[in-house]
Amino acid sequence: MLAALKSERVVDMSDMEMQLEAAPQENREGRPYLGSVAFYKHVILFCVFLLFVLLTGTVIFFSAHYVSLKKDYAAVCEEYRTVSQERDDYKKQFAAAAAESGRVLKDETSKTDVVRGDFSIPFHADPEDWRYLLINEAHPLNPEYTVKLAPTRNGQFVDQRIVYQLEKMIDDAAKEGYSLIICSSYRDYERQNELQKESISQYMDKGLSYHDAFFRVKRTLALTGTSEHHTGLSVDIVGEDYQCLDEEQAKRPEAIWLAEHCAEYGFVVRYDRGKEDITGMDYESWHFRYVGKEAAAFMEEYDLCLEEFSDMVEFFHRPDEGE
Question: In a 10 Å sphere around its CB, with 0-12 CB exposed, 13-18 middle and 19+ buried, how is residue 234 labelled?
Answer without folding.
Answer: buried
